[in-house]
Amino acid sequence: MRSPEAFVRKMPYSRQSGAVQPDSSDTSKPIKEAQSDEEAERVFHGVTYPPRDFAQPICLPAKRLAYCVKKLRHSAVEMTNDVQNFFIKPMPHREQLPQSLETAYIACTLYSSTTENNAHIVRGIVMDTYLNLVCDKDDVDLEAELAKIQATLLLHILLLSDGDIQYRSLADRNVDHLRDIILRLQRRDATEMLDHIKASTYARWLFLENIRRTILTSTFVECIYMNLRDGICMTVPFLSMLPITVEAALWAAKSERDWKKATHIDPPNVLPYGEALARWEKDATQGNLDTLQHLLYVACKGFSGVPT
């Protein structure tokens, strides 16, 4: 495994849709939680234009890029330690992970134990696991589809951020596939979303926040990768429109009881990333942001006054 700094360089790119075998040779208003079918659409599609600061493509400095790559790769390690990370948090009614996430969890755990002697075996298993997820075309319900997308994204991040040419080549050739399944997730029927989250207010919020963070993380990963590959990112305006819950304590809550204690506004504030940045400034300097919020803040604002 190479350092994140080693990955910060331009690299050739071959755009190809679908699963491809590896090639070792190369100011809007806050978006409230949906209370009806119509409002559910606004959870994901409520912002129609980017804030002014995000209207143009962006080129990030190398130091910020290296930091982002490092933090993204750590999400795989975080998953093996805590069975959750900054865009995956299991639903409270589940005693075990969905099958696709369980498979990705095993692959990440194996990856974390890579040594010089077992690297080639680990590489093959991780890449096969990723390809199986990419090639899985079975129709599933929304919760299972979300889990499959999260599992794919988790391994996609791992492959892109490692620095190994075979890992990176495989992920690079499936960038379009990841984008397609993320767009499909955004377009799932709003009524179907509500059907999955009627158990409790907490379960309902957690399910939607998993979706929001998965979409946001996937788009952020693509932005970082475009910066590394092309020297500029053209999708930042779209990224700035994607929503996330502003309050960090809610994602950090370990139970429904903790979540209710941390919920000062009902429903919680959900803002597009571009608008949430202004709300995070004080929390950023005090170290009170969660991992994803901190990563998004540093990528945009830099390191000044922010503990890293």
From TrEMBL:
> Where is region (Disordered) located?
1-39
What residue spans carry the Polar residues bias annotation? 14-28
Name of the protein this chain belongs to: Uncharacterized protein
